[in-house]
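Repro:
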Amino acid sequence: MALERSELDLANRAALERLTSARPILTGVATARDVVPGMGDRLLLHAGPPIAWAEASGPLRGALIGAVLFEGWAADEREARAQLEAGEIRFEPCHHHRCVGPMAGVTSPSMAVYVVENASHGNRAFSNFNEGYGKVLRYGAYSPEVLAKLAWINREMAPLVGAALAAGEGLDLRALVAEALHMGDEGHNRNKAGSLIFTRLLAPRIIQATEDRALAAEVVRFLGENALSVLNPVMAACKAAADAAHGVAGSTLVSTMARNGTEFGIRVSGLGDRWFTAASSTPDGLYFAGFSAADANPDIGDSTITETAGLGAFAMAAAPAIVTFISGKPKDARDATLEMYEITLGEHPHFTIPALDFRGTPVGIELTRVVELGIPPRINTGIAHREAGVGQIGAGLVRPSLRVFEEALVAFAEEYGI
């Protein structure tokens, strides 16, 4: 029997309610192999939909090689590349393992991850630690200094942050994001306020959790100086919320958006774990001195989970200053948010925008509206160089191919007989 309109509306209301009622709490830090579902000793996780080595972009390849070296599975780049090409080391999407990661998003078994628990629905999500700016693994770098920083983050910083979190109640990330939106963040490309709030909440606990004052100072300084410190746990919070909304039969709510540097992909609440993909687009934006669109890799990263949950480009009206980073005028930020109300199911009751009279951010991307109106979601993003290890070369806006949503809608019609 075909799905009735009333049944579709009911399913979408249920999915949206699960998404917006999620209360993600940062409860701790753990080693990926100990907590991430399905994590194996010869498995790496990456951003975006599934991909084979032959199709992987430069930043993703570099990050996978770097993770192999970090784990000690290979002695050098040549050996690491050979193992990956031969399939001796598997790599799968973070999203298949309740994880998310920015840019290349690579997480390996011995890396530390933030543990986020959805207090409303009981599910968990995970993310790795943010490395800061410059040469970093998430942009495909794997030089000795990159691996040394990774070692420090995972073997010294992460355990101390974990001890700090264990010493008290978890951090309410929904409340943190709500406050940051009122301070000029949008939760994806601009996280200056959120990272400072994050550091303020953790700093006293970090100091109390160790007698090593030098390490405590180094960790607090690293968190405070990195404007992206909070991005990774916020991504996990959005993942926990979106996962709660996934799997609602008859729902056309988009519950995943992700890019691997070659393809952009979505998953839909009522269509199980099937991916719908198309070529990833190259962002439009501002480039750092010496770089241009010719140097850019197609869009990459799991950070579009923020837009999926009503943040990022959907909340740009809360962050007009972001246009100095991604190009445009303050009015463009407001217009971006207003347009996203047209393709969403509702407004977020907890994420509000002062400049719009505290209206909730647009949330719950709805497949039919995207296709009928011809309006793909807007996405705020960093721009990676197409070659591994060069790093970020700019920032801007990108829209995925409308074809992805059209194919998903056709599949939905076939699945539900409409």
